[in-house]
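Subject: Sanity check before I submit

Could someone independently write out the structure tokens for this chain? I want to compare against mine line by line before I put it in a report. The sequence has 128 residues.
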Amino acid sequence: MQLFGLIKQYYKFVLWVFVIGYLCLAPADEFKKVHITIPYFDKVVHFGLFFILGIIVRAKREIQFLNQVFYFQVSFAAIYGGLIELAQSYLTTSRKGDWIDWLADLAGLALGIWVIRFLPTKVIRWLE
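---
Independent answer below. Compare away.
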């Protein structure tokens, strides 16, 4: 029952983690319909996904000052990014893991955590 309570309290974090997992591990053929030829666009996507995750993580801390949960979520997100790259390398056939993607994840996470201090309180409460 305690696990369900944690998921309910942190559902935005959990939901976004699943969205990231799907987008990073789904067969690449599902995304071939989008013809974007920007160099290193996948790095931008990784950065953006983890930027949003960083904002979600920090929003909860801004409201409730939960240091232990905050540090757990940040650590989990950083490790999760690395695990996604390993999964792309070893568990998928249409994707390749890239440690530069993981660095983009970490950069997005860090900037998301930092940038929230500039968002209005209403936005932070909505993200909480």
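---
OP: Matches mine. For the report I'm noting this point. The mean pLDDT is 83.
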